[in-house]
Design a protein that fits this description.
alpha+beta; single chain; 5 strands; three-stranded antiparallel β-sheet; Threonyl-tRNA Synthetase, Chain A, domain 2; two-stranded antiparallel ribbon; about 100 residues
Length: about 100
């Protein structure tokens, strides 16, 4: 990513954080979460019952953030970006 792209991604994420979106946590059957289209880590194994976070239109298997509102997350800052495979980039970021 170019420095300009990194700045743009940080801007987009921080704008979403400032929207103060509610964070909802639900415990449900893994199959139900899959039917909802919940995102999860590729290749990870999950139990029959999973914790799912819903933030605006995003539905994800539990990976945090353990907040009740996005505004609690603070400021998003990318600290590293790298290639993980052909055509795929990974960013590492912090919240402060």
């Amino acid at each position: 990513m170019t420095p300009k792209q990194i700045t743009e991604v940080e801007k987009i994420v921080n704008e979403q954080i400032q929207k103060a979106l509610p964070v909802e946590n639900k415990i449900m059957k893994r199959e139900e979460a899959d039917k909802l289209g919940a995102e999860h880590e590729f290749g990870a194994k999950y139990p029959d019952m999973v914790s799912v976070y819903i933030i605006g239109p995003s539905i994800e298997f539990c990976g945090g953030p353990h907040a009740t509102n996005t505004r609690e997350l603070g400021h998003f800052k990318i600290i590293k970006e790298e290639a993980t495979s052909a055509g795929v980039r990974r960013i590492r970021a912090i919240l402060r």
